[in-house]
Every structure is written in C-alpha cells, then in structure tokens.
Write a structure and sequence with these properties.
Layout (H helix, E strand, L loop, with lengths): L5 H24 L3 H7 L11 E6 L8 H5 L2 E2 L2 E12 L3 E2 L3 H10 L3 E7 L6 H11 L10 E3 L8 H19 L4 E5 H7 L10 E4 L14 E8 L8 E6 L3 H7 L3 H10 L1
Parallel strand pairs: 1-3, 3-5, 5-6, 6-7, 7-8, 8-9
Antiparallel strand pairs: 1-10, 2-3, 3-4, 9-10
Helix pairs in contact: 5-6
Length: 262
Amino acid sequence: MRRMPVWAVFIGIGLIVAGYLFFFIYFFVNPFSFRWQAIYGDAIYPDSFEIRGIDISHYQQRIDWERLRNAQVKDEPLRFIFVKATEGVSLIDENFNENFYQAKRNDIIRGAYHFFTPDADPKAQARFFLKQVHLEPGDLPPVLDVEKAGTLNVQQMQKAVRQWLDVVEQHYGVKPIIYTGYKFKLTYLNDSVFNEYPYWIAHYYVDHLEYTGHWDFWQYTDVGRVEGIAGFVDCNLYRGNLEQMMHLTIKQETIDSIGMRR
C-alpha cells in the first residue's frame, strides 16, 4: 500500500464501493422495490383486467361488509372473494363461517380454500375440508392452497397434492382450483398433469405476470387496500370476463348429484 500512488488507492476504494452498491441494489433493492412502493401506499394494480377480487381470513379481523360490498379496486367493483376455511386436519379459520355467509349475503361471488399441510395425510385433509365446507350453486370451485413442501421432495409433493385434489374432485365433480406461488409452481408442480386444473398464481411486486403457462386467477399483491377492511388485504384478478368466471362456478346439477350420492 505504501508503494502505491495515492490516486490508485482512491480508485481502488471507489471500485470497491461501486461494486458493493451494485451488489446491494441488484440483489436486495430491485427484487423488492415494488414491495417498498406498496408499503408506502403505492401498491401495484395491473391494468386491463375488469374482474377484481380479494381473499380473506381471520387476519382481516372485523370487516365492514356494507362498505366492502360497494368497494372498488382499480375503478372496478369487487366481484369475488376467496375465504380461508381450513388448514391441515383440525384447524378451522375462526372467521370462516361468518365471512363465507356474509360474502353470499352481500352478493359477492365466493370461494373457499384449504391451506395444505405437507406433513399431514392429504386424504384426511381433503375429508376435513369437505366436512366443514358446503359449497352451493354459484360458488367458485374448492381451492387447494399449496405453498409449503416441508420435508417432501418433488415426487412426494406431487403425489400428496394429487390425492387431495382427487378426493375433492370426486365429491364435487369439478376440478379444484390450485393456488400456489410462481416459484413453487415451477419447482414442485411443474408437471402437465396439473395443467388441467384452474390455476391461481401468486406473484407480487411486479407490473406483469411472468408465468407463461395457463392461469385463471392472479394474486398480485398482499398489501392491497380495500374499503371495509382496516389493514392490508390480498388483491386478485380473474383473467377473463364475468361470463367466463360464472361458467367456472358450481352448477345446481353438480350439487344435486352430490345429494343423490349421499
């Protein structure tokens, strides 16, 4: 260092600082820049979609349904709500019954989802969900929320998910909706057998969905703001129009067939 000229030392220090700043911005700031914007009140609400919705659980606490039924997202009315129902083989969301009832009472298309626990029997989880959730005509198909693999490898994860889907599909006679994250889909569910199901993908803090496969719903932020809900809420959109989404809902003949099987 003593033999190096002063200007070389300063250039070296400058290069080190520049390299550090590049590394920090590229790996830490850029991937979460949209999240920072959302936290400070500038959430990303994608354009060019008319069917908007949210998903809720006990985390939203007390909801003002009178205000929520008239709420708008990106200047569009709130059309649908997914409600958390169950988790694992024993947990029922404490606000499920109230939220599920209020959604229908306030003329909002509703759906119910099960949070998948990888270390629990998938068939037992499916039966638990079916025992607690009774979908009606006009409701969206049942949803499997799968986002954690636990100790399961790819093959084990795919087998477990298929078992849950098969039990629920046999009961309702419709393909359940698969909810998962963009990266989780590519890592654990990247098999053509899952492409026949309606797909609800979570991908936050981006201004467009990068997933190139088929999808029906997009959860584009977990820090949305909607009238009637005090805190943050997950915001979603449907890819098609209202008529197409209604075609996806459960029909009366499906419910009748369940009654006849019983």
